[in-house]
Amino acid sequence: SVAKEKILQRKSLQLRHQQQSWQESPEGKNMLEFRRSLPAFKEKDSFLKAVSENQVIVVSGETGCGKTTQLPQYILESEIEAGRGALCSIICTQPRRISAISVSERVAAEHGEKLGESVGYKVRLEGMRGRDTRLLFCTTGVLLRRLLVDRSLKGVTYVIVDEIHERGMNEDFLLIVLKDLLPRRPDLRLILMSATLNAELFSSYFDGAPTMHIPGFTFPVRAQFLEDILERTGYRLTPYNQIDDYGQDKSWKMQKQAQSFKKRKSQIVSAVEDALEVADFKGYSLRTKESMSCWNPDSIGFNLIEHVLCHIVKNERPGAVLVFMTGWDDINSLKDQLHAHPLLGDQSRVLLLACHGSMSSSEQKLIFGNPEGGVRKIVLATNMAETSITINDVVFVVDCGKAKETSYDALNNTPCLLPSWISKAAARQRKGRAGRVQSGECFHLYPRCVYDAFADYQLPELLRTPLQSLCLQIKSLQLGSISEFLSSALQPPEALSVQNAVEYLKIIGALDENENLTVLGRKLSMLPVEPKLGKMLILGAIFNCLDPILTVVAGLSVRDPFVVPADKKDLAESAKAQFAARAYSDHLALIRAYDGWKDAEAQQAGYEYCWRNFLSSQTLRAIDSLRKQFFHLLKDIGLVGNNSETNNKWSNEEHLLRAVICAGLFPGISSVVNKEKSIALKTMEDGPVLLYANSVNGSVPKIPYPWLVFNEKIKVNTVFLRDSTGVSDSMLLLFGGNISKGGLDGHLKMLGGYLEFFMKPELAKTYSTLKRELEELIQK
Ligand code: ADP
Ligand code: MG
Fold first, then answer.
1. Between helices 2-24 and 67-81, what is the axis angle to 10°?
2. How large a percentage of the chain has pLDDT more than 70?
3. Does the keyword RNA-binding feature in the UniProt annotation (predicted)?
4. What confidence tier does 771 reach under pLDDT thresholds 50, 70, 90?
């Protein structure tokens, strides 16, 4: 170990030398000059001092002041300077992949190195780091998984948790774990970074850790709400009472009913209604009414956005435009719409960019760079552009007022992922993005009275999502009792949510009666997907029907590849229905569509195939790449071998696929009763439910299966089931839940409870026959 120490010393010297020569090179000097202009630089010394004197500090500072790119680098540089370069290991977590990657690229460049040398990154299933990486940017999830195998973070000297103000579930979780770890690792330093001033909350959580603030400077930004925009641009809204006549806006009505019992939201709804009624109707068909619907992910007022963008390009001073959308789906659809526009699609005038989680570095250059020749840069982004990334030259912000947010209804045990109204804090943050280099303007695409009804801050994610994956992690990290552990969170979740999650994990067989991890649970915790998808993967591997199950799991993790253009809805639906012929399954339709695409790709006809069948080739490619990654993961944990033939021995057995899908999705089951003219569906928690509009099972006259399993339900006024698959009684009996729980009898008893609930008399027979057969089988 003396020899080892020598090597480290030599390396440290070498690092110091490298750093010095970079900082003295012309390029390095330029870079330093830029870095010194950032507000963080003024605080460099006091920051380093605070870090050396305290185990935990909390730093706040406005977005763009240099927290993410500078502070970790200050630590790295000072360690190198002090000749400890090879001894330090700094981990900086980011809530999103894209920021981990783009920030590491930036920091490596500022440090005068290639990515993967001193500075690297690691995100789920992908990374760029070497043995000598000292400063690692990773997603919070990656650090959590590392804690799985390395509970005391051996060798790590600094942990920096970024963007804690977002209050993501992983970040809150990580803070509990770190709080527990700090006393055992007195040499470990923890730095928390936040873009807002609520540092006190975190400081008191860490026993009064010191806080420091980096004062920033932004230019004033003028906020304009819908009424101002309408007046300024001469645009007219469709009054609410006209919408029904067009018969297009069922969703808006539904939301209205759904939220009428939620006071805050109902205030918003009536405020919007008033605003729409006040506005005067000029016969222009405007899709603003859609921006009011809450469960359709495509429901942003595209035409209004288009109109505002046109106005900016035609009439406003130069400066980039940043448009906040809710998700990748609507960014894509909007992009298509804008590309087709005579002015906005004109590449000599407009550079239209989308900011997403897997941008290449050339795309990033375009986003951060200045287009030439008076071309107007328009960047479409999600809420990650609120704080995670900073585009300096933005002068105009267009804010749709929504973000896709998961929420969770613990009473009904129902998760919801809906574009919902953002908080006042988020709206302010969006607005602030327009004032980085000069005064700017923000177009809020909703009336001021709607803004007034926004909540002040967004609810922490821990309080609005199902906790299943989290509970599994707690168990696999051996952190003790789940409810006890979670009660030490910054803001602990409801007891009922915790109880639901634990109950779920028991039902699917991931935890035993005493809340201990089962073998299945341990495998599930190693797979970076929801437990239900993990279970499907594992069973797909065990039952040798791997490829189709990979497709289903990747499809559910990416997004639906079926596209439904508003003007070709019928054609699109019948295209999808063809894939589902006699299958009564959205999942099997997905498998068939994907397989068809692979065949077409092999003959260079993939694009045509997608076009003909209303599929998104981009999504299919994403699914394709995720499938490969899942396959490697399964291989790594020893569940599958390399032989594709063995792995897929039963891949053509649709019955088996159905059963495996059932095993994964249980207890997401609904009973099916075919009525004269309709199909009645019912779940145990919700009573009657409906199918989401684009499910293939929504358009069939009858479903010849007694059950549907579904992967997601969404609550509007009634509960809607998303993708579903028909399954038989015996599939449910054999694959639903966990046979190992309480033996066969216990299993059947639990299922019996379900069957009784649904009062299917004909099942009693199947149930007892099956029980007898199974018992005989087991006897043998
Ligand atoms: P914070 O974390 O406080 O929001 P950052 O450290 O991310 O701030 O960014 C500080 C500054 O560095 C930004 O204002 C921007 O000017 C610059 N910057 C960050 N990333 C890049 C990049 N990829 N290319 C060019 N400049 C960048
Ligand atoms: Mg930052």
1. 120
2. 83
3. yes
4. low
Ligand 2 geometric centre to CA of 103 (Å): 9
Judge contact between 95 and 68, C-beta under 8 A.
no
Tell me which H or E stretch contains 524. helix 519-526
Task: Give dist(CA 490, CA 31) in Å, integer.
Answer: 39
Question: How many angstroms does the Cα of residue 195 sit away from the middle of ligand 2?
Answer: 7
Q: Whose CA is nearest to atom 27 of ligand 1?
A: 106
Cα(94) to ligand 1 centroid in Å equals 14
pTM of the model: 0.72
**Dihedral, 479, 485, 488, 491 alpha carbons, nearest 10:** 120
Q: Tell me which residue has its CA closest to atom 21 in ligand 1.
A: 106
The answer to whether the CB of 168 falls within 8 A of the CB of 144 is no
Are 380 and 359 a contacting pair, CB within 8 Å? no
The reported pLDDT for the residue numbered 254 is: 37
442 - beta bridge partners? 223, 397
Ligand 1 centroid to 459 CA: how many Å? 27
Using the mean position of ligand 2's atoms as its centre, give its distance from the Cα of residue 106 in Å.
12
For the chain, the residue count is 780
User: CA–CA separation, 179 vs 372, rounded Å?
Assistant: 49
What share of the chain has pLDDT > 90, as a percent? 48
Instruction: Classify residue 222 by its DSSP letter.
Output: E
Task: Give the residues surrounding ligand 1 with Cβ less than 6 Å away.
Answer: 38, 61, 63-70, 102, 106, 368, 390, 392
Q: Provide the mean pLDDT of the chain.
A: 83
Nearest-CA residue for ligand 1 atom 18 is 390
Give the integer Cα–Cα distance in Å for 368 and 364. Answer: 6
Handedness of CA 533, 537, 542, 547 (dihedral sign): positive
- pLDDT per residue over 679-716, tens digit each? 999 988 888 999 987 899 988 999 999 999 998 887 76
Question: Which residues does 6 contact at the CB level (< 8 Å), separation at least 6?
Answer: none
Residue minimizing CA distance to atom 5 of ligand 1: 66
The Å distance, Cα 103 to ligand 1 centre, comes to: 8
Distance between CA atoms of residues 240 and 479, nearest Å: 53
> With 60 as the cut, is the pLDDT of residue 739 above it?
no
Three-state SS for 615?
Answer: strand
- Using CA positions, which residue lies closest to atom 25 of ligand 1? 368
Laid out side by side, the sheet with 135-139 consists of 126-128, 119-123, 135-139, 90-94, 158-161, 189-194, 56-61, 211-214
Report in angstroms the alpha-carbon separations of 476 from 518, 523, 528, 556. 10, 10, 13, 24
Cis ω on the peptide bond leading into residue 460 (within 30° of 0)? no
Query: Model confidence over 556-612: pLDDT tens digits?
Result: 887 788 988 767 888 888 999 999 999 999 999 999 999 999 999 999 999 999 999
CB-proximal residues (5 Å) to ion ligand 2: 67-68
Burial class (CB in 10 A: 0-12, 13-18, 19+), 344: buried
Hey, which of 30, 105, 390 would you mutate to test ligand 1's pocket, going by the most ligand atoms within 8 Å of its Cβ? 390
CA quadruple 277, 424, 435, 28: dihedral sign: negative
| Atom of ligand 1 at shortest range from CA of 389 | 7
Q: Which of 729, 727, 726, 728 is nearest to 767 (CA)?
A: 729
Whether ipTM > 0.95 holds is yes
Ligand nearest to the CA of 437: 1
Q: Is 7 helix (H, G, I), strand (E, B) or coil?
A: helix
Q: 339: CA distance to ligand 1 center in Å?
A: 29
Q: 227-256: per-residue pLDDT in tens? A: 788 777 665 544 333 333 233 333 333 344
> CA-CA distances (angstroms) from residue 540 to 518, 610, 656, 709, 780?
19, 27, 9, 17, 26
Q: Under a CB-based contact definition with an 8 Å cutoff, are residues 338 and 344 in contact?
A: yes
615: which strand partners? 562
Residue 699 near residue 729, CB atoms below 8 Å: no
d(CA 277, CA 69): 48
> Atom 12 of ligand 1 has which residue's CA nearest to it?
66
